[in-house]
Amino acid sequence: MPGNPHECRLNAAHCSELAKTVVTSECQALLVLADTWKRLAAELEADQSLLQVLSELDLSSQPYEAFQFALNIHPGLSEPRSRSISAPAQPHRISAQ
Known about the structure:
The chain is mostly helical. Helices cover about 55% and strands about 0% of the residues.
């Protein structure tokens, strides 16, 4: 996966340092950019952790359709299938005459 959380944090630190040396209007933009870099670093770490766990799963010996649906992966389908639950049939009532 492209991206490196460490580099993102370095970019965030650089933006924070630049914010200390610029005029007020530019300072706010650099601080927002620094926060964005920090969030990106956290997202990359979370994605890397998830990919690590997924790579350790042995999906070859057991059904994994539920896993595919959980990740919204539907091989061979143009749209996800939806489960429809039909309402129970209403009993027929015979009217008294």
